[in-house]
């Protein structure tokens, strides 16, 4: 039993055949899917898909790439969107200085908007961070000081030092198919050390297909390949990794249990 804690079911490559994609994943043992938003124009579809399937949930938020187009998104709009019963998380939000598709100050301001709404609703933040460890940690630490909020670093690829610091802040860490890549030795070392009650797994599909599917379009069924790899790394069975990551998902995304 596994949960794909981060997929984009509305993206090209998955949206054309959502039923088939979900059926193949269920056949591979995936029992739940968190369908992630990246821009406001997508929220209705992301939430609509979650409303159609009992095993799909939704997040609402703005990806850092899209920050410039949403600079005036207020807390109220985000807060309103979280009221839907299938919306269980906020994001993906965060900072991406690798692509720098949006102004860094705007990314940071919008990140803080998402944090406020997470603190107010108790819904976890789904954080995307790339080449932005220092600012991501500084903002998280400052904001935690104003009042705690639940959060997850998605598709973790950051340094061991960043991993330790966010774990100390109480965050959880989600591992994507990148961990299975040949050049991911540093990440594999970090994944071995994440506490058992803080680790989740995801695909970030349609991107980042794990070994042995590299080069193919990624889909939620491949959560099983990443999970098997992570279980081997940690020297435990796939069953116990499945149990732990599923329990962690529901402990973090408490609204999914209701
Ligand atoms: Zn992301
Ligand atoms: Zn994503």
Low-confidence stretches: none
* H/E topology pattern: EHEHEHEHEHEHEHEHH
Radius of gyration: 17 Å
Count structural domains: 1
CATH top level label: Alpha Beta
Largest sheet, if any? 8 strands, parallel
Helix content: 40-55%
* Assembly category: single chain
Overall pLDDT confidence: 97
CATH fold description:
TIM Barrel
Main structural class: alpha/beta
* Tally of helical segments: 9
Approximate strand percentage = 15-25%
Count of beta strands: 8
> What is the CA–CA distance across the termini?
19 Å
CATH architecture: Alpha-Beta Barrel
Bound small molecules, which ones? zinc ion
CATH superfamily grouping: Metal-dependent hydrolases
Pfam families: TatD_DNase (PF01026)
Binding site for a divalent metal cation 2: 128, 154
GO molecular function: DNA nuclease activity; hydrolase activity, acting on ester bonds; metal ion binding
InterPro entries: DNase_TatD-rel_CS, Metal_Hydrolase, TatD-like, TatD/YcfH-like
Keywords:
single chain; 258 residues; alpha/beta; TIM Barrel; 8-stranded parallel beta sheet; 9 helices; 8 strands; binds zinc ion; hydrolase; TatD/YcfH-like; TatD-like; TatD family deoxyribonuclease; metal ion binding
